[in-house]
Structure formats: C-alpha cells, structure tokens
C-alpha cells in the first residue's frame, strides 16, 4: 500500500491496514511480492493527481505480468470514480474514504472471481469507531477526531470526497490515546478537516485537547488543521497554558485580500484574521504557520500584493505556498474561470516562498545560543550519523549522534549553534532546563 497526500490519509492507511490484517491479509514493502497493490490517494492538489496517475501507469506492468489486483482508495476514488474507471480499466477495486469496511470483501472477490468492486458512497455516520489503526512505528501517532467538512470553501474538494462533518465519541478517542501512551508514543496529533469545529454532546475541541494532554505519558499534543473562522478563546487558552499542548498553531490564511477570501468562501476578512492573530499573540509567544494559495480565480496583481504584505506583517514561522489548481466538482470549478496564467501563478509562488524563507531564516537566527527541547524522531534525512527531531514550535533540529547516546522517543535539550531557513543545527546539553 502506498499513501499520498495529507496526514488524514496516513491515518486512513493505518485503518485500512488494521481492517485487512484482521481478515488475514499480510503486507509487504516489495511490489514484486504483492498479490494486491493499493494506492491511497489525495484529490486536493494537481501534483498529487499526477503522482497517482504516474504510479498507475507503472502498475500496468504488474497487472499484465502477474495478474495483481489493483485498488485505488481515498479521495481520488471518490471524486474521480467515473474518470478512473473509464481511463484505467485495469483497476479492480475503487473505494472512497467512507467505504473501507467493505475493502476486505471486495479484494477477496476480485482475487477469486476477477469481479470489479466499488464502494464510493458517502456516509453521514462513519467514523470507524472501534477500529484501532495498525501503526508502523515512530514517535508521533495520528488520531482522527472527526471526519468530513461543512465549510465548502470554493476551491476545496474535501466536502465532496469525505462528506459532511461528524465528530467521534470522545470516549473512543481517549481510549485510543491511552493505548498509544502505554505503547510508548510521546506525541499525539489530533486530526480533522476543520478540527476546531469538533463537537460531541458537551465536548468541544478545547475540552478534548485538554483531556488528551492530561493522559500520563503523553508529553506533547498537536492538532491540525483549524479554520480561522471558529477559533474559540478557550482553545487559545489551552494552547497558551497547558504544559503538554504544543505552543504552536497552524492558521491557514489562503489569501490576504478580502475579495479573494470572499470568492474562496472563507468566511473571514483580512481584519478578522488580524484580530485573531492579535488575540493569539496577547497570550504569549505562540509561533504561527500558514497555507497560501496563489493565482486563485481572478486574482489581480494588487490582490496578490495584499497577500505578500500580510505575510510580511504576520511573521510566520513557516508558510506552505501552492498555486491554485482547479478541482473537479468544486464550487470554483463551476462558478469561476481559472484565468490567472500558469506562468504568473508560478512566479507568485516563487516570490512568496523566497519571502517566507527570509522571514524563517531571521526567526531561526534568533534561536542561536538558545536551548530548545526536542523530541527525537529518528535519523536525519541527509545522514544516518545524525539525529532529527522537532521543537515544540515544530521546527526541525539536527545534531550528530556521536555527541550523546539517545533514542527516538526521548526528549533532549539541544543548544542551537547554526540555522538555515528550515532547520536548526546544534548539540545536546546535559542539564535539562525544562519542567
């Protein structure tokens, strides 16, 4: 099984792994050894689409030579079912995000009778309660606390691929988190398409975050992704005050121009966003990260400049910048022409990335000489002789393994000696100046 896209897809793949293992399926990392190959797909951005189609092209060989069963799961299966079935006739099984309980039976039928299987109906109720995801190691565990989205941002396909919002029972969430703590997971990330709209009877999201963070053994709780339109003060207080809730917020902006925000269906203005940021920063030093879309329908140079200037003003720790790509079945695809030239989109993306790099570099330089608390996650990407982890504010830190005996899952104080725009470099210190 290969997974594309967001953290929710990673979590869904863990659910799928659990569902299949209980029905006797085993897993291999080698496609040449597999009887079934599954792609868990993302429909949010064009690049994810292209990667999936590229992989499908390679899988034709396995289908032709070995008769492998090919399954496409997730958001592309839901949103592009007709297109996939017509253009990729070798696909045996197509299952959307709400149909994973049907997957073992569909795969078995495909293997035994060569019957094509579909489960692409959206559900108002499916939250996969009572299914414990099959996790494959690491120090962070994802927990989906809700599914679906009711925001209907005009550029976004999620409501059509994952359905309407429904929150899980907190009892099941807390039992899952307690089990993770007993297995040695130190960090939990709570997931939802609009996580701060979580509501189950008397539980709102602030109460849920607090309950998870209070579990013995859980040292750091994160959450994503929230929406600026409904960020309650109680949640801000939890982020600012609870010792086991990461003091960092991902706060998607998308655009800094009011007309574009309105066309996107974001339900807040530039002034609303500023007031929320002011409210956050009155509570302390809480680093912010964000998402930006460049070249949304009709975006003029002046409107783009509003976004550029707001990024300068906000001083984000990091910004994830993407060019607008029209998604089939969204409101924007039906209502607005995708009329910003591709070259201009790319130019704006590059300019904003350069701007954010300069901001991030300056912020990281301010950390030189300071000691930060790092959760060790594993080998650094560029060298197995180095450890890598993240600070509370989610900045990557790298240091040489030879400097101190350590293990993934441990927290380690690291003195920062050098930085880049995305990474801190340091050395461990013996004394732990953290409570």
What report would you give on this structure?
The protein is an alpha/beta fold. The protein has 14 helices and 20 strands. The chain has a 5-stranded parallel beta sheet with strand order 1-2-3-4-5, sandwiched between helices. The protein has a 5-stranded mixed β-barrel with strand order 16-17-18-20-19. It has a 3-stranded parallel beta sheet with strand order 6-9-12, sandwiched between helices. α8 packs parallel to α9. The relative contact order is 0.08.
List the helices and strands and how they pair.
Elements: E1 2-3, H1 7-21, E2 36-41, H2 46-66, E3 69-74, H3 75-79, H4 81-87, E4 93-95, H5 103-113, E5 117-119, E6 140-144, E7 146-147, H6 158-162, E8 166-167, H7 170-182, E9 187-191, E10 199-200, E11 203-204, H8 205-213, E12 220-224, H9 233-241, E13 249-250, H10 258-264, H11 270-281, E14 288-294, H12 301-314, E15 318-323, H13 331-335, H14 342-365, E16 371-379, E17 386-390, E18 396-400, E19 411-419, E20 423-428
Parallel strand pairs: 1-2, 2-3, 3-4, 4-5, 6-9, 9-12, 13-14, 14-15, 18-20
Antiparallel strand pairs: 7-8, 10-11, 16-17, 16-19, 17-18, 19-20
């Amino acid at each position: 099984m290969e997974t594309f896209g967001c953290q929710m897809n990673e979590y869904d793949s863990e659910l799928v792994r659990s569902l299949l293992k209980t029905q006797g399926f085993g897993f291999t990392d080698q496609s040449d050894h597999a009887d079934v190959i599954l792609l868990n797909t993302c429909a949010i951005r064009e690049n994810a689409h292209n990667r999936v189609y590229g992989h499908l092209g390679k899988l034709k060989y396995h289908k032709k030579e070995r008769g492998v069963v090919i399954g496409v799961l997730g958001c592309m299966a839901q949103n592009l079912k007709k297109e996939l079935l017509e253009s990729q006739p070798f696909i045996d099984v197509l299952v959307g995000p709400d149909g994973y309980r049907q997957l073992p039976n569909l795969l078995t039928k495909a293997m035994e009778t060569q019957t094509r299987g579909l489960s692409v109906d959206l559900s108002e109720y499916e939250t996969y309660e009572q299914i414990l995801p099959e996790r494959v190691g690491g120090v962070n565990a994802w927990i989906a606390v809700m599914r679906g989205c009711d925001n209907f941002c005009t550029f976004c396909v999620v409501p059509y691929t994952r359905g309407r919002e429904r929150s899980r029972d907190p009892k099941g969430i807390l039992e899952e988190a307690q089990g993770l703590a007993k297995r040695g997971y130190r960090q939990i990330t709570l997931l939802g398409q609009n996580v701060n709209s979580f509501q189950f009877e008397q539980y709102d999201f602030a109460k849920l975050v607090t309950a998870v963070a209070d579990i013995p053994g859980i040292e750091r709780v994160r959450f994503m992704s929230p929406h600026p339109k409904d960020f309650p003060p109680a949640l801000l207080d939890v982020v600012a005050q609870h010792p086991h809730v990461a003091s960092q917020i991902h706060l998607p902006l998308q655009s800094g121009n009011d007309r574009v925000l309105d066309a996107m269906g974001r339900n807040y203005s530039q002034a609303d966003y500023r007031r929320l940021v002011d409210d956050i920063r009155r509570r302390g030093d809480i680093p912010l990260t964000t998402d930006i879309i460049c070249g949304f329908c009709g975006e003029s140079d002046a409107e783009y400049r509003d976004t550029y200037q707001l990024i300068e003003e906000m001083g984000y720790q990091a910004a994830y910048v993407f060019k607008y790509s029209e998604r089939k079945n969204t409101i924007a695809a039906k209502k607005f022409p995708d009329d910003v030239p591709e070259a201009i989109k790319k130019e704006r993306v590059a300019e904003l990335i350069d701007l954010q790099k300069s901001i991030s570099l300056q912020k990281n330089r301010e950390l030189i000489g300071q000691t930060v608390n790092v959760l060790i996650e594993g080998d650094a990407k560029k060298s197995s002789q180095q450890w890598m982890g993240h600070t509370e504010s989610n900045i990557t830190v790298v240091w040489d393994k030879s400097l101190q005996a350590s293990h993934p899952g441990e927290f380690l104080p690291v003195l920062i000696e050098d930085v880049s725009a995305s990474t801190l470099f340091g050395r461990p210190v013996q004394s732990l100046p953290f409570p």
